[in-house]
Amino acid sequence: xxxxxxxxQIVEVPLETPFPSTWNPANPxxxxxxxxxxxxxxxxxxxxxxxxDSSQLLAGIWDTHIKPLVIGKEITEVEAINxxxxxxxxxxxxxxxxxxxxxxxxxKYANLPIYKMLGGSKGKVxxxxxxxxxxxxxxxxEDADRFIEEGFKMMKLRAHHDDPFEDVKIIGAIxxxxxxxxxxxxxxxxxxxFTGKRTVAKWDLKKAANVSKAFEDIGIEWxxxxxxxxxxxxxxxxxxxxxxNIAGGELNAQVHEYRELLKHNCFDIYQMDVVLSGGFVxxxxxxxxxxxxxxxxxxxxxxxxxxxxxxxxxxxxxxxCPFIEYCYDPPYWPYEVRDLMLTEPLTVDKDGxxxxxxxxxxxxxxxxxxxxxxxxxxx
Length: 379
What we know:
Elements: E1 3-19, E2 29-41, E3 46-51, H1 56-60, H2 62-70, H3 78-88, H4 97-110, H5 114-117, E4 124-130, H6 137-150, E5 154-158, H7 164-178, E6 183-187, H8 205-218, E7 222-224, H9 232-241, E8 245-248, H10 254-263, E9 269-270, H11 279-292, E10 296-297, H12 305-317, E11 323-327, H13 335-338, E12 353-355, H14 368-373, E13 375-378
Parallel strand pairs: 4-5, 4-11, 5-6, 6-7, 7-8, 8-9, 9-10
Antiparallel strand pairs: 1-2, 1-13, 2-3, 4-12
């Protein structure tokens, strides 16, 4: 079955409550940006994938690079399409939503969810509550209590102060409050460059090592993105200097970069993102590479409902994914906002688990009426 057309839809949905993120505090997010890729087969199947931003760059190469790449291909040719998207990514920011759309179509054709097509059998995954907004310590303690009541076993907090030892103090107070009832991990967001208040990653090896030692004393589960994501030698030195689990890799790209991360032994936990970093094809390979080194693979996902669905299928397909990120931070980022592009939200059960979608393909349905209402560009 061949692909006969490929379409792009760029959507900007206004948020009722602006989202003040810890990683870009000077510029609260006022819109949910969604870039939807659609492939259509000669048998009438429509496959969808979605990126997390308003990708004008992807729109700019849609007719010249993306459509010629996928049109005429069999939907089974995911390896060839993924390789072509590597080349396209030289011109446009991370076009992996196209590959996700092909997998969605392939799953619908085979009448199987993607995780089963990848060989998986895990029908649900333990979720951890991943926060991201600016809040006081009192508000975070309230969040922690609510997460415990809702069944979560772990929450992730952000280090975002100019003085990271202020974060250590705050997170220490929260950990002291919850005790053994809730595990805590910490994301430093130092792995990539910022466009807002913080313009460069600020933690060098010395600072990261000192902060890691302070977090060791608190007893957190892992420290995420503590240094620039391409400082392979520095990350390796940091990991050797601490007893903490070190996590990262969300915005590294493609198999060869993760080979370097693994070769240098940079992380204990590898967090490749399906829609940001290589699609299903490369995530499956990196998960296997990590498994061979006895490392955890767990997909990063701080995007939207389609991104979470893709991550769930990867988590359900591999052996070395014990938990998954669940971006959830009411009132700024409840699941109703995160998943507003879907007809039904993806929710966690009373024991903290989330089901991998069981319907064919991605297993979720887009709210086309809402997406059409806020569409700003079509190709």
